[in-house]
């Protein structure tokens, strides 16, 4: 038998599955949407926010190192 290493962390699904599912179902019902639509929109919003943060950091790095990037491009 192969021993598995665990962090001791209980996955959210195991710890809160029914509670989260009930809350999701209630929210979707109140908004007149399906739970899948609610989750999809939440994930899209999160990805959009993360993308904006990554872009801002990349633009800052590019500005900070503009001279080096210009010389490397020669």
For this entry, give a set of tags.
mainly alpha, 74 residues, 78% helix
Overview of the molecule:
With 74 residues, this protein is mainly α. It has a domain at 25-73. It is 78% helix and 0% strand. It contains three helices and no strands. Helix 1 crosses helix 2 (35-64). The chain is rod-shaped and about 60 Å long.
Question: What is this structure, in a nutshell?
Answer:
With 74 residues, this protein is mainly α.
- Structural class given helices, strands, pairing? mainly alpha
Quote the distance from N terminus to C terminus: 58 Å
- Overall pLDDT metric: 86
Helix content: over 70%
Order of helices and strands: HHH
Largest sheet: none
Number of strands: 0
In the predicted model, the low-confidence regions spanning at least 5 consecutive residues are none
Give the amount of beta strand, in percent: under 5%
Global geometry:
rod-shaped
* Rg (C-alpha, Å): 22 Å
**Number of DSSP helical runs:** 3
How do the helices and strands line up, and which of them pair or pack?
Blueprint: H1 12-31, H2 35-64, H3 66-73
Helix pairs in contact: 1-2
